[in-house]
TrEMBL record, chain A:
Enzyme class, first EC level, given as a word: oxidoreductase
EC number per UniProt: 1.2.4.1
GO CC list: chloroplast
Protein name: pyruvate dehydrogenase (acetyl-transferring)
Function: The pyruvate dehydrogenase complex catalyzes the overall conversion of pyruvate to acetyl-CoA and CO(2). It contains multiple copies of three enzymatic components: pyruvate dehydrogenase (E1), dihydrolipoamide acetyltransferase (E2) and lipoamide dehydrogenase (E3).
Catalytic activity: N(6)-[(R)-lipoyl]-L-lysyl-[protein] + pyruvate + H(+) = N(6)-[(R)-S(8)-acetyldihydrolipoyl]-L-lysyl-[protein] + CO2
Domain Transketolase-like pyrimidine-binding: 82-257
Database matches in InterPro entries: THDP-binding (IPR029061), Transketo_C/PFOR_II (IPR009014), Transketolase-like_Pyr-bd (IPR005475), Transketolase_C (IPR033248)
Organism: Morus notabilis
Main location: plastid
GO MF terms held by the record: metal ion binding; pyruvate dehydrogenase (acetyl-transferring) activity
Automatic annotation (TrEMBL), chain B:
EC number per UniProt: 1.2.4.1
Subunit text: Tetramer of 2 alpha and 2 beta subunits.
Coiled-coil annotated spans: 362-389
Function: The pyruvate dehydrogenase complex catalyzes the overall conversion of pyruvate to acetyl-CoA and CO(2). It contains multiple copies of three enzymatic components: pyruvate dehydrogenase (E1), dihydrolipoamide acetyltransferase (E2) and lipoamide dehydrogenase (E3).
Enzyme class: oxidoreductase
SUPFAM superfamilies in the cross-refs: Thiamin diphosphate-binding fold (THDP-binding)
A Gene Ontology BP annotation from the UniProt entry: pyruvate decarboxylation to acetyl-CoA
Keywords: Coiled coil, Oxidoreductase, Pyruvate, Thiamine pyrophosphate
Name recorded for this polypeptide: Pyruvate dehydrogenase E1 component subunit alpha
Length: 402, 431
C-alpha cells in the first residue's frame, strides 16, 4: 500500500456504534503503546488506542517515508487509493447515507458538483434539497444552515473559497459560536463549515486567505485542518458527527493528493494532533499544506544528520496540548511552521500556549515561521516569498540546533 | 397569488389561491372583512400595479373608534373574533403591556442591567400573529423580544428571571434581555444584531420543508415567523432571505414591525422607498400592509399568511404599521420624536381599542376584562417575586454550555480532556 505519508497519527475512534481504533504492528524505534484486544487492525498507519491512551504513552511509529510503506505488514486489507477531494466526498457520502438529516448547502455544490468536485454526484443521488445550490449570499445561507441545525438538521455549509466566509463572519461568530451558550444550552448547532483556503498558485490576494487566524477567537467553535486523504475523510466524518459547530479547513493545493485509505469505516479524533514523524532533536509543529514543506525539509535534515519530530497539529482550536507537550518534553525545542500570517496567527496562539504550559521544558525560545504579513501577490516569485519554503525550515532548524 | 387589502370592506376579495398546483383541498378564497387601513389603499397583486402613493404617515389618522364603528355597521353577525378568542387576545396583549411596564420599574430599581428594549404599543403585532401559531411553529425575533416570548408561551417568571440574570431564567441567565430562547416553545431567539435572526428563521423554515420532502414526514407543516423592524429592511440579510424564501417556497412569514424609528433614525430618512410591503413582490411573494395598532386586522392578515405558508405556497411579507410608546431602549432619552406624533399613536393604543371593541360588541363586559387584568397583574407580580427569590448562577455554570459536546475544549497537557478536569465543573478551570 503506497501512502504518501505514513502517519502514525492519533486518529482514534469516537462514536459508539461505528468502529474501533486501529492498531498496527509496525517495527518502531520506541516502545509501543498498549494494544487493546478490542480493536482490529486496519491499515498500515499506526494509530494509538483511543480515549484510554491518554493516560499512557503515545504510540510512535516508523519513520515517515514518501515512497512505500512496506513497514506496515499486518494490514488486514489493502484499502483503496484515492485523491483527497474524493476522500472528502467519500466521508460526506457515508455520513449522508448513515443519517438522513445530513445535508449540504453552498454555491455550486449541487448540479455543478462543487467547484473542487467534493460534492460531485451527490445531488443526483440525494436530490436538490439535500444538496442545496444556494444563491450567492454567504451570510444568509450560513445563517440558514445555523437555523436548520437548531431545528434538527445537520448541515454542511461549503464556502466556495474560505475567503468568502468572511461575509459570513457575522453568522459564524454571533450565532454559530454563541447560540448554544446564550440559549442556556437549549439549542445545539451541529453544523460543519468547510471550504478550501490557503495560498494557491497565483490566485491573487483575496483568494489566498487563511481564515483560521480570524476565527480562532470565536468561543464555541472547533477548528480542524485536514492534510491527507486519510485525515480528510476522518475529520469530515468526525465533524459531521460532532454536536459542536466545526470549521474544517481544507487547502486548495492539497485536493489532488493521492493516498491509500482503509476500506473500513474510521473517523479521526477532532481534538487530537497527528504524529507524522517521531524524532529527538526538535519538535516541528505544523498543519495543512506546510506539513509537506516540513517533510520535504525533513528529508534534507535527516541527510544532514538531524532528527526532527514532526507533528501535524490538525486541531487548530483547541490545541492538543498533550501530544504537543509530550513532544516538547522530549526535544526541548519547538519550531512552528504555518501558512498563517505572522500577526495573530495560529502560530502566535500556539507559541503562547506552549510558553504558558511548558516553559520549563524549553531550552530556547520558540521560533515561529509564518507567512509574511503581506496580501498575497499575484506574481509567482513574490507569492513564493510570502510563504515559508523548505529551505527556510532547514535553515531555522540548523540555527536552532547549534 | 394575490393578497388583497382593500378599503372597500363590503367587497369580497379575489380568491387567493391561484397557484397552478394547489397543495391542499382547503377553500382557497378568503373574504376580507377588514376595513380602512391607514396606509396602502390598493389591492396587492403578484405584479403590483403602480402605487397610488397614499402612504402618508402625517395624513389624518382615522381614529380607531371610527374603524370599529364601520366594522360594526358592516356585518353585525359576522364579527372577527369570538368571545374566547377575544379574551385570549386581550389577556395576551395586557400581559405584554404589564410585563414591559414592570420591566421598566425593575430596571430603574437596579434589578436588571444592560440594554432593555420594551415593546409597549406594539402588542397587537405580537399577539395578532403568535396567538395563531401551534406550539411546533417557530418564532424568531430581535432584541425587542420579551413580548414575543410571552405570546409564544414562555412563562412570565422564566422571562423575568432571565432578565434578572438568575439561573432559573429561560436561558439560565446566560442570554439576557436580548437573547430569549425556548426550545420547548420553539422560540429561536432573541438576536442582538438586527437582521441576524432572519437567516436563522429561513433555516428553520428550510428545516420544515426538508422534513416534509426529504424525510417524508407528513405533518411537517411548521411555519416560522420572523419579526424584525423597519431599520432591518435596509439590511442585506433581509433581502437575501426574501430571495431564498421565495425561491424555495419556504414556510415562513416575514413580519415587519415598522414603528418608524430605528433608535433616532426615522424610517423616512433612511429608506429610499419607505413602503416596505412593496419589496415583497419584487422577490415574488405577496407584500401586505396592515394597521399594526389594530389586533383584529393583524390577526386577519396573519391568518391568511400563516395558512399560505402551511399549505406550502411560500412566504409572505407583512408590514405592520405600529409604534413604540417608549424609547428605543430604557437608556434612550427619546427626545427626537415629535410629541404630537406620540400622542396620535397613543390614542390608537391597541389594548384600549380592543377593549372598546369587545365591550361594544357585547363580547365581554367590563368586569370580565377587569378580572383578566387583575389576573395578569398578579401573574407579573408573582414573576418578579419568583425572579427575586431565584439564585444567581453559580460559578460551576460558567463553562457548561459553551459546547454541546464539552470535548470541544480539547485535551489538556495532562492528556485528559479538559472537561474531565474537576476544576472545569467548578468553573475555575482555565480553558
Amino acid at each position: 500500500m503506497a501512502t504518501v505519508f505514513q502517519s502514525p497519527g492519533t486518529a482514534t475512534a469516537l462514536s459508539s456504534n461505528s468502529f474501533d481504533s486501529t492498531k498496527l504492528l509496525v517495527p518502531s524505534r520506541r516502545s509501543l503503546s498498549e494494544r487493546k484486544a478490542s480493536f482490529f487492525c486496519v491499515r498500515s498507519e499506526m494509530k494509538p488506542t483511543p480515549i484510554a491512551r491518554r493516560a499512557d504513552n503515545l504510540v510512535v511509529n516508523a519513520v515517515a517515508t514518501k515512497a512505500d510503506s512496506s513497514a506496515s505488514s499486518t494490514a488486514s486489507k489493502p484499502g483503496h487509493e484515492l485523491l483527497l477531494f474524493e476522500a472528502l466526498r467519500e466521508g460526506l457520502e457515508e455520513e449522508m447515507d448513515r443519517d438522513p438529516t445530513v445535508c449540504v448547502m453552498g454555491e455550486d455544490v449541487g448540479h455543478y458538483g462543487g467547484s473542487y468536485k467534493v460534492t460531485r454526484g451527490l445531488a443526483e443521488k440525494y436530490g436538490d434539497l439535500r444538496v442545496l445550490d444556494t444563491p450567492i449570499a454567504e451570510n444568509s445561507f450560513t445563517g440558514m444552515g445555523i437555523g436548520a441545525a437548531m431545528t434538527g438538521l445537520r448541515p454542511i455549509v461549503e464556502g466556495m473559497n474560505m475567503g468568502f466566509l468572511l461575509l459570513a463572519f457575522n453568522q459564524i461568530s454571533n450565532n454559530c459560536g454563541m447560540l448554544h451558550y446564550t440559549s442556556g444550552g437549549q439549542f445545539k448547532i451541529p453544523i460543519v463549515i468547510r471550504g478550501p483556503g490557503g495560498v494557491g498558485r497565483q490566485l491573487g490576494a483575496e483568494h489566498s486567505q487563511r481564515l483560521e487566524s480570524y476565527f480562532q477567537s470565536i468561543p464555541g467553535i472547533q477548528m480542524v485542518a485536514c492534510s491527507t486523504p486519510y485525515n480528510a475523510k476522518g475529520l469530515m466524518k468526525a465533524a459531521i458527527r460532532s454536536e459542536n459547530p466545526v470549521i474544517l479547513f481544507e487547502h486548495v493545493l492539497l485536493y489532488n493528493l493521492k493516498e491509500r485509505i482503509p476500506d473500513e469505516e474510521y473517523i479521526c479524533n477532532l481534538e487530537e494532533a497527528e504524529m507524522v514523524r517521531p524524532g529527538e532533536h526538535i519538535t516541528i509543529l505544523t498543519y495543512s499544506r506546510m506539513r509537506y514543506h516540513v517533510m520535504q525539509a525533513a528529508k534534507t535534515l535527516v541527510n544532514k544528520g538531524y532528527d526532527p519530530e514532526v507533528i501535524d497539529i490538525r486541531s487548530l482550536k483547541p490545541f492538543d496540548l498533550y501530544t504537543i507537550g509530550n513532544s516538547v518534553k522530549k526535544t526541548h525545542r519547538v519550531l512552528i511552521v504555518e501558512e498563517c500570517m505572522r500577526t495573530g496567527g495560529i502560530g502566535a496562539s500556539l507559541t503562547s500556549a506552549i510558553n504558558e504550559n511548558f516553559h520549563d521544558y524549553l531550552d530556547a525560545p520558540i521560533v515561529c515561521l509564518s507567512s509574511q504579513d503581506v496580501p498575497t501577490p499575484y506574481a509567482g516569485t513574490l507569492e513564493e516569498w510570502t510563504v515559508v519554503q523548505p529551505a527556510q525550515i532547514v535553515t531555522a532548524v540548523e540555527q536552532f540546533c547549534q | 397569488m394575490s393578497f388583497s387589502a382593500t378599503t372597500k370592506f363590503a367587497q369580497p376579495v379575489v380568491p387567493l389561491n391561484t397557484s397552478a398546483t394547489p397543495r391542499s383541498n382547503d377553500n382557497p378564497s378568503l373574504f376580507f372583512k377588514t376595513s380602512s387601513f391607514l396606509g396602502s389603499t390598493h389591492k396587492l397583486r403578484f405584479n403590483p400595479l403602480p402605487s397610488k402613493a397614499h402612504h402618508r404617515r402625517s395624513a389624518a389618522v382615522v381614529a380607531v373608534s371610527d374603524v370599529v364603528k364601520e366594522k360594526k355597521r358592516q356585518a353585525s353577525t359576522n364579527l372577527l373574533i369570538t368571545k374566547e378568542e377575544g379574551l385570549e387576545v386581550y389577556e395576551d396583549m395586557y400581559l405584554g403591556r404589564a410585563f414591559e411596564d414592570m420591566c421598566a420599574q425593575m430596571y430603574y430599581r437596579g434589578k436588571m442591567f444592560g440594554f432593555v428594549h420594551l415593546y409597549n404599543g406594539q402588542e397587537a403585532v405580537s399577539t395578532g400573529f403568535i396567538k395563531l401559531l401551534k406550539q411546533k411553529d417557530c418564532v424568531v425575533s430581535t432584541y425587542r423580544d420579551h413580548v414575543h416570548a410571552l405570546s409564544k408561551g414562555v412563562p412570565a417568571r422564566a422571562v423575568m428571571s432571565e432578565l434578572f440574570g438568575k439561573s432559573t431564567g429561560c436561558c439560565r441567565g446566560q442570554g439576557g434581555s436580548m437573547h430569549m430562547f425556548s426550545k420547548e416553545h420553539n422560540l429561536l431567539g432573541g438576536f442582538a444584531f438586527i437582521g441576524e435572526g432572519i437567516p436563522v428563521a429561513t433555516g428553520a423554515a428550510f428545516s420544515a420543508k426538508y422534513r416534509r420532502e426529504v424525510l417524508k414526514e407528513a405533518n411537517a407543516d411548521d411555519v416560522t415567523l420572523a419579526f424584525f423592524g423597519d431599520g432591518t429592511c435596509n439590511n442585506g440579510q433581509f433581502f437575501e432571505c426574501l430571495n431564498m424564501a421565495a425561491l424555495w417556497k419556504l414556510p415562513i412569514v416575514f413580519v415587519v414591525e415598522n414603528n418608524l424609528w430605528a433608535i433616532g433614525m426615522s424610517h423616512l430618512r433612511a429608506t429610499s422607498d419607505p413602503e416596505i410591503w412593496k419589496k415583497g413582490p419584487a422577490f415574488g411573494m405577496p407584500g401586505v400592509h396592515v394597521d399594526g395598532m389594530d389586533v383584529l386586522k393583524v390577526r386577519e392578515v396573519a391568518k391568511e399568511a400563516i395558512a399560505r405558508a402551511r399549505r406550502g405556497e411560500g412566504p409572505t411579507l407583512v408590514e405592520c404599521e405600529t409604534y413604540r410608546f417608549r424609547g428605543h431602549s430604557l437608556a434612550d432619552p427619546d427626545e427626537l420624536r415629535d410629541p404630537a406624533e406620540k400622542a396620535r399613536y397613543a390614542a390608537r393604543d391597541p389594548i384600549t381599542a380592543l377593549k372598546k371593541y369587545l365591550v361594544e360588541n357585547k363580547l365581554a363586559n367590563e368586569q370580565e376584562l377587569k378580572a383578566v387584568e387583575k389576573k395578569i397583574d398578579e401573574l407579573v407580580e408573582e414573576a418578579v417575586e419568583f425572579a427575586d427569590a431565584s439564585p444567581h448562577p453559580p460559578r460551576s455554570q460558567l463553562l457548561e454550555n459553551v459546547f454541546a459536546d464539552p470535548k470541544g475544549f480539547g485535551i489538556g497537557p495532562d492528556g485528559r480532556y479538559r472537561c474531565e478536569d474537576p476544576k472545569f465543573t467548578e468553573g475555575t478551570a482555565q480553558v
